[in-house]
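Internal ticket - ligand job 305, phosphoric acid mono(formamide)ester:
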Amino acid sequence: MKLSFQHLVSTEQLSRSDTDLIMKVSEQMEKVAAKGTSDILKGKVLGALFYEPSTRTRLSFEAAMVRLGGSKITADGLQFSSMYKGETIEDTIIVAAQYADIICMRHPEKGSADKAAAVSPVPFINAGDGPGQHPTQALLDLYTIQKEKGRIEDLHVAMVGDLKFGRTVHSLSFLLGLYPNVRFTLVSPKELVMPEKVTSFFKKKNISFVESDKLEDALDADVLYDTRVQKERFEDPKEYERLKLKYVIDAKHVKGKDVTIMHPLPRVGEITTDVDALPNAAYFRQVKNGVYVRMALLALLLDAV
Ligand code: CP
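stdout (structure tokens):
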């Protein structure tokens, strides 16, 4: 079983046969994880380079490698790396590839993943490049939608919050564009609308979308994908404070509805904790699905399945 790529930088590079394969192998990996571990990646080493904060992506990549019998080496914090001394991303990746069989990297700079993939002698996975892309998050989102709704086609997906800087919604938009009859409602303040790169993709592919600044327009979708306002991307802290909680989803908004609530997390107040116990709150299940999808990617890119 083969993917069409060696390095995963952006969801724009994925074909429908890639996503079908990743979904299928993720289901197999869910069964492996339910039993505990496997040894299909025994002897393989993951280089996990995290130059920007992360809880889920980092831990789930590490958990995925451990569950498949491999091991990991890690580097975190730009200030503790030789990039702080001026080493280029390219040199850092070539060096890391002398130690690891596969590399994932999170970096604050948009485009850093392209630079890394251009030189990496081993498979490279983008674990988030600034406000650019987060392809593994989008793949786990896709897997979650399939599990929660029983389908990925014929869906109304509402995206809410910081659509400008939220890399997960950019990545997920391109992926959902591979599936028929998915329509979008994009809810954000006017300062944080979806970038033109994504809306022009929708137009080119004749994908229906509407833009709104009202949360109410998202509450009757099949999937409500909420996002945090990305404090770290704002130059003016006052502007962040003004926008950060424009939309707060509480249980009254979504209780008893068919809408599935997703969020890449972390949340910082935009979904209140009274939503957590509702059956349609899927965001913690979404976290768990990240391990299966990353297991699938590691296994596929290392030719172990
Ligand atoms: N969803 C996500 O990328 O979370 P982390 O920033 O904690 O990795």
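Auto-summary: Residues 78 and 276 are 34 Å apart (CA to CA). Residues 54-57, 128, 134, 137, 264-266 surround phosphoric acid mono(formamide)ester (CB under 6 Å).
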